[in-house]
Write a structure and sequence with these properties.
The chain is mostly helical and 400 residues long. The chain contains 15 helices and no strands.
Length: 400
């Protein structure tokens, strides 16, 4: 069995994590915090500057698309490295390890919310049905108690589908150094098929395009994770060619990636373009960004991170917990504002103060739940189900 290609990646921290990907996670989760904060404390100015700022805030939702690409890249990378080391894949062991990463904090949120809703006298029978869907990760096709968890359902479906497909490919071509070579053309074709499904859904539903119907369902968004898998295949099985190609075109890749994000900036509504092609455009931009982060410049050497980068990497490290609990934190801020404990978001000073406080609270809650719940679960996981990949080749793991 061929050994995985070894090449120095971009700067790796003392913990073995690739800092550049934690920085991308930080950017992604901050984008989500911005767009969700705006939903409650939005910029209401009709001036040109006000509308431009509102459009920029709306585009913060592309942080989820970047998370999708990162998850596809990192999760498939773990499986690719496992195959390169052992010549086979143990799918159930891999999925159990993912469960230890994802489930503890997720079910803390779900069970805690159910108990709080019951204590507040909510319709328990109704919420029991809603929480049933949340617990089974099918809520993005039904009712959702927390509207941001739709992306977690898509990722959960992706984990099972990806693992099954890669295990089948590995077993059907047992002993080959690269049994996954068909992914190089299957994944782009699958991406085109998903675009077709989005177009068909948009035509059939018509305006206004709904979030649940047009944006939150797995079969309409899973291609974004697939593009991350596509990049991971080239990175792990064709790395010399990928490195050569990227380093000869770094400027063009950065430029085209920026262009891919333009539709999200220019289109501030749920238009036909947004619910069909914008998701693919932004995902491809994310592929370019991740490729630039993963492939070091020729002759470059890692530089010690400054304070800002260390702070951003810290946020990126805890991005899963921050993303998971930022909506409850936001709900608390809305309650405090309505009851006079926090200033109303009138004008820039108050709005900026509220956003800084909200971000600090979300990061704090994410850090605490990560250290109290997630990290102990990961230590148990590594003791009971050791990684066959030894961690991703770049010392990184998907955050969910």
């Amino acid at each position: 069995m061929a050994e995985p290609v070894r090449q120095r990646p971009a700067s790796v921290g003392r913990s073995g994590r690739l800092q550049s990907l934690d920085l991308l996670r930080c950017v992604a989760v901050l984008g989500v915090l911005v767009v969700h904060f705006q939903q409650f404390y939005g910029w209401k100015s009709e001036s040109l500057a006000g509308r431009a700022w509102g459009r920029l805030m709306f585009a913060g939702g592309t942080g989820v698309d970047l998370f999708f690409v990162l998850s596809g890249f990192l999760v498939s990378g773990l499986l690719f490295v496992e195959y390169q080391k052992h010549g086979d894949l143990r799918g159930w062991t891999f999925l159990i390890r993912r469960g230890f990463k994802i489930y503890p904090n997720y079910y803390l949120l779900i069970v805690g919310t159910f108990l709080v809703d019951g204590w507040r006298g909510e319709d328990v029978a109704h919420y029991a049905r809603v929480f049933g869907g949340q617990c089974l990760y099918v809520h993005n096709y039904f009712a959702m108690r927390w509207d941001h968890t739709w992306s977690l359902a898509i990722e959960e479906h992706f984990y099972f589908l990806l693992t099954g497909c890669l295990v089948l490919l590995a077993r059907s071509r047992r002993g080959e150094a690269d049994p996954f070579r068909s992914l190089a053309w299957i994944l782009p074709l699958a991406g085109l098929a998903v675009i077709g499904l989005r177009v068909l859904t948009a035509v059939c539903t018509g305006r206004p395009y709904g979030f649940e119907v047009n944006m939150a369902r797995t079969h309409l968004r899973i291609d974004e994770l697939g593009w991350g898998v596509w990049l991971a295949y080239w990175y792990h099985f064709r790395r010399p060619a990928l490195t050569h190609w990227v380093n000869r075109r770094r400027g063009w890749i950065a430029f085209v990636s920026a262009l891919c994000y333009l539709p999200a900036l220019l289109d501030g509504s749920r238009s036909f373009l947004w619910v069909t092609l914008t998701f693919t455009s932004v995902a491809l931009g994310g592929v370019g960004v991740v490729a630039l982060a993963m492939i070091p410049r020729d002759g470059s050497s890692p530089r010690p991170p400054g304070r800002l980068k260390r702070a951003m990497a810290f946020v990126g490290f805890h991005s899963y917990s921050i993303y998971l609990f930022h909506r409850p934190v936001e709900t608390g801020f809305v309650w405090l504002s309505k009851h006079g404990f926090l200033p109303q978001a009138e004008g820039w000073p108050a709005r900026l103060l509220l956003f800084v406080l909200f971000t600090a609270a979300a990061v704090g809650v994410g850090y605490v739940t990560g250290m109290v719940v997630e990290q102990p679960a990961l230590r148990l996981r590594d003791r009971w189900f050791p990684s066959r990949a030894g961690g991703l080749a770049v010392g990184q793991e998907a955050g969910g």
